[in-house]
Amino acid sequence: MPEGHTIHRHARLQRKHLRNAGPIAVSSPQGRFAAGAARLDGSRVTAVQASGKHLFYRWDQGDTLHVHLGLFGKYKTFLGDPPPPTDGTRLAMRTEDATIYLAGPTVCEIIDPDEEAGIRKRLGPDPLDRRADPERFIANLGRRRIPIGAALLDQKVIAGIGNVYRAELLFILGIDPQTPANQLDSSTAMALWDRTVTELRRGEKSGRIVTTDPADFGARRDRDLDRSERLYAYKRDGLPCRRCGTEIRMTEMANRLMWWCPSCQT
DNA sequence: GGGTGATGCTGAG
DNA sequence: TCAGCCTCACCCC
Fold first, then answer.
1. Which protein residue's Cα is closest to nucleotide C7 at C1'?
2. Which of A44, A86, A128, A158 is exposed most, by the fewest CB atoms within 10 A?
3. Is the Cβ atom of A71 within 7 Å of strand C at any atom?
């Protein structure tokens, strides 16, 4: 379930359990991270940081653990006695009161400072980072001729947007996904950044992606919405646009499926 | 119980 | 451009 909001949420929630807990029991039930787990076992976590879709854990013996969930990766956290790990559990971290299981990540590795610098260098500004500079995002767009629908998935342009938010943000701002990135005027680009910040923060808080207005469905909170009510465009091909009634269309862009309203997004 | 799709990304060609 | 990787939740019998 991982776009940037999920990763930042994991960082925030796991920080509570891991940071300044006692020594952490680290293992790799599945075995594929056995050497790394052995190296971390019994150490303490001093920080958990999210950057785009990457997670970095600082350990007091100097190591940094790097995790990227990819498409399939999932965390599960249990308070008290955890159930036995599944066959796919790559990493288990256990403190006195919580156990965190990680399964299916694309990346779970111990890295050195140079490697971390390399990863960070490849990332554009992160809308969930309060120190992020929107001007960098605008400058990045200005340098690309690719469609904005492709640029938003490029983590070097902006870090943390995934396939759902790409479709939703372009719909909300009424931007045709085919528009070349360098042809967005700077006020539109700034509005796109601002809305991205708003929506990702909203997702980080609630733990789910909701871009519609609950009030439109007679609901009070994001969590009260049915699955079919949460989004404007994503996976709604063939259904009427919530704003104008035109059929939502589906196409492929940057190797991923993309949904948009041909009448609202021009 | 089996089949399938998924909110990601890389590296080979 | 495209195959490949990683795991599990969900859907349909």
1. A104
2. A86
3. yes
H/E segment holding residue A134: helix A134-142
Distance A1 CA to C5 C1' (A): 17
Going by C-alpha positions, the residue among A203, A205, A225, A201 that lies closest to residue A213 is A225
Cβ of residue A28 lies below 7 Å from strand C: no
Domain residue spans of chain A: 4-121, 134-260
Fold of A134-260: Helicase, Ruva Protein; domain 3 (1.10.8)
Q: Are A90 and A76 in contact (CB under 8 A)?
A: no
Q: How many CB atoms lie within 10 A of CB A114?
A: 8
Per-residue model confidence as pLDDT tens for chain A (266 residues): 689 999 999 999 999 999 979 999 999 999 999 999 999 999 999 999 999 999 999 999 999 999 999 999 999 999 999 999 999 999 999 999 999 999 999 999 999 999 999 999 999 999 999 999 999 999 999 999 999 999 999 999 999 999 999 999 999 999 999 999 999 999 999 999 999 999 999 999 999 999 999 999 999 999 888 889 999 999 999 999 999 999 999 999 999 999 999 999 99
A43, A23 contact by CB (below 8 A): yes
Q: What is the dihedral of CA A222, A225, A228, A230, to 10 degrees?
A: -10
CA of A109 to C1' of C6 (A): 14
Instruction: Indicate if A134-260 has the same CATH topology as A4-121.
Output: no
Instruction: Evaluate if the CB of A143 falls below 7 Å from strand B.
Output: no
Q: Report pTM.
A: 0.96
CATH level 3 topology of A4-121:
N-terminal domain of MutM-like DNA repair proteins (3.20.190)
- Measure A174 CA to C4 C1' (Å): 35
